[in-house]
Write a structure and sequence with these properties.
Blueprint (H helix, E strand, L loop, with lengths): L7 H7 L4 H6 L14 H8 L43 E6 L3 H12 L4 E5 L5 H6 L1 H19 L17 H25 L3 E4 L1 E4 L5 E5 L7 E10 L3 E3 L14 H4 L8 E5 L3 H13 L2 E5 L11 H14 L2 E3 L5 E6 L6 E5 L4 E5 L1 E4 L3 E3 L6 H4 L22 E3 L10 H16 L16 E3 L5 E5 L2 H8 L4 E8 L17 E8 L4 E8 L3 H13 L4 H6 L46
Parallel strand pairs: 1-2, 1-6, 2-3, 6-16, 8-9, 8-14, 9-10
Antiparallel strand pairs: 4-5, 5-6, 7-15, 11-12, 12-13, 17-18, 18-21, 19-20, 20-21
Helix pairs in contact: 4-12, 6-7, 6-9
Length: 584
């Protein structure tokens, strides 16, 4: 995947006079001038006595076989071992060391396949380096700030004290150290799994039968031949057109490069990245504005989520600029560096320190020469695949953000592992694949959002309004009970259960409020197993919690007593028992 942010820590490592180190540290994407590398990968390469600057030999910096726990090589054989008439350098060559690519590579290696991974940047992908992980760290920091603000309602004093302060540089430094540590863990995991790491720019040769890897430091390209190639290069943030926009704003990647907390910031975008980062900045003390093209953010989500979040953002003090049709231009006062954001509806936001554009992402496919390989793409450059991650070219596969289908890290990991199972796991895995339906996801806004399945509107369009039944609840979490403020001023939790059919199959579940992020996973399992409203009602509530609302939604216990479970839990039925093998 693409990693642009937080380059400083890693570029120090490559400021070496060693020509070998400069040659080995290659860039996978020649369109970028800055290359980032994991500290662990750098240390391993620098410490290798087998490195050679010769451009004619393939650089192997990882063992090419899988060691089992008993330290004996796995015994499966594949094309690369000479058993077939055609010779391959790898059974499986993965382009992109993000979460999905590494997961697939390691799973393949566990079956004894000879596996290589090509990457130009830091290991772990967008999620680890400039996505989920550092974002959650900042969300945690913002949540602590909110708790400190709330402490007076529980009898604590000192919030106004000068001794209470927030140090942005402190959390940034420690967050970055944590990411470096994760980079090293990914590096060691690949090595321990017997996956060969190849640093360089990856591009398909004409015809798609070979992959050419070009080092950044001017070395000769090295060509590899693999029986199976996986494209898992991920995506990157894009900037809209407009005078001074790209030059005077940062992307979500750039957010993690900020050395100081902005005094005033404008976040442009209506998706989950925009509302997440706007919430973090506002909670930590930045005067924050959110610019959306239409009426509100998260328009593709269920209305109960979008509307409740909109109310909460305004309550927190975020200035929401609506129906703007986006940003026309960004002007800069050369004397002060202060920015003015001019919107397409004529409005202006002046005195801005930081403008963060979160208006979209695109697949990272430019350097790959997909056209030359014959790989089919669709609108936006995304790679076309079927449900088995297969492209239209035999032996070339793709998954994750580069395909534009459920762009979530756990989805890519699951798809990558299943692909490796099918290719190398033997007959028992023939035809296995992942499902892209009912995928739970969380938006780390303030408050957080959890959602899975269809929105109410989507369910109506799919099944018809007469076949839909919706259960709703909106309340103040018990956390806010002692607050001596007007009930309408207390932050709200909102929930919705969307059911379809006579049996009231749960086809959509949506929640926003404190703890939403941690309560969704279990409900996701229930929905994947076909739970009905009656199944939800059959589970006794955990009190007092917010999640109990989902199993007590009014009217409780009056739905048709039909279960989606293999073993029904309804009406006091006996709990399912495992099948225990007995000796004959």
């Amino acid at each position: 995947m693409l990693f642009v942010a937080s380059a400083t820590l890693f570029n120090r490592a490559v400021n070496s006079n060693s020509q070998t180190s400069r040659t080995i540290f290659a860039s996978a994407f020649s369109t970028l001038s800055t290359a980032n590398y994991s500290a662990a990968a750098f240390a391993n390469l620098r410490g290798s006595s087998s490195l050679s600057s010769s451009s004619s030999s393939k650089v192997q910096v990882r063992p090419a076989f899988h060691l089992r726990r008993d330290n004996k090589p796995a015994t499966r054989t594949y094309m690369s071992d000479g058993a077939d008439q055609e010779s391959y350098d790898f059974d499986y060559l993965v382009i992109g060391a993000g979460s999905g690519g590494i997961a697939s590579a390691r799973r393949a290696a566990s079956y004894g396949a000879k596996v290589g991974v090509i990457e130009k940047g830091r290991l772990g992908g967008t999620c680890v380096n400039v996505g989920c992980v550092p974002k959650k760290v900042m969300w945690n920091a913002a949540s602590i700030a909110e708790t400190l603000h709330d402490m007076k309602h529980y009898g604590f004093s000192g919030y106004e004290s000068e001794d209470l302060s927030f140090d942005w540089s402190f959390i940034k430094e420690n967050r970055d150290k944590y990411i470096v540590r994760l980079n090293g863990i990914y590096d060691r995991n690949m090595a321990n799994s017997g996956v060969q790491s190849i640093l360089g720019t990856a591009s398909f040769a004409e015809g798609g039968k070979e992959v050419v890897v070009t080092p950044e430091g001017g070395g000769e390209p090295v060509t590899y031949k693999a029986k199976n190639v996986l494209i898992a290069t991920g995506g990157y943030p894009t900037f809209p057109e407009g005078d001074g926009i790209k030059e005077n704003s940062i992307s979500s990647d750039g957010f993690f490069e900020l050395e100081d907390l902005p005094g005033k910031a404008v976040v442009v975008g209506a998706g989950y990245i925009a509302v997440e980062l706007a919430g973090v900045l506002q909670a930590l003390g930045t005067d924050t504005s959110l610019v959306v093209r239409k009426g509100k953010a998260l328009r593709e989500f269920d209305d109960i989520l979008a509307d409740t979040l909109d109310d909460e953002m305004q309550r927190q003090g975020i200035n929401v600029f609506r129906d703007t049709n986006g940003v026309e231009k960004i002007e800069v006062d050369e004397a002060t560096g202060s920015k003015t954001v001019v919107l397409n509806n004529g409005e202006k936001i002046e005195g801005v320190d930081t403008v963060l554009m979160a208006t979209g992402r695109a697949p990272l496919v430019g350097p790959l020469n997909l056209e030359g390989a014959g790989v089919q793409q669709k609108q936006g450059g995304y790679i076309v695949t079927n449900e088995y991650s297969e492209t239209n070219v035999d032996g070339i596969f793709a998954l994750g953000d580069v395909c534009g289908n459920v762009e979530l890290t756990p989805m890519a990991i699951a798809a990558g592992r299943r692909l490796a199972d099918r290719l190398f796991g033997g007959p028992e895995f023939e035809g296995v694949k992942v499902s892209y339906e009912n995928v739970p996801t969380v938006v780390f806004s303030h408050p957080p959002i959890g959602t899975i399945g269809l929105s109410e509107q989507q369910a109506i369009e799919k099944y018809g309004e007469d076949n839909i039944k919706v259960y709703r609840s909106k309340f103040a979490n018990l956390y806010y009970g002692p607050w001596q403020v007007e009930p309408d001023d207390k932050p709200k939790t909102a929930m919705k259960l969307v059911c379809a059919g006579d049996e009231e199959l749960v086809v959509g579940l949506h929640v926003i409020g404190m703890g939403a992020d941690e309560m969704l996973q279990g409900f996701g399992i229930a929905m994947k197993m076909g739970a009905t409203k009656a199944d939800f009602d059959s589970c006794v509530a955990i009190h007092p919690t917010a999640s109990e609302e989902f199993v007590t939604l009014f009217p409780w216990g009056l739905s048709k007593q039909e279960s989606g479970a293999k073993v029904s839990p309804l009406n006091g039925a006996q709990t399912a028992e495992p099948k225990i093998a007995t000796e004959a």
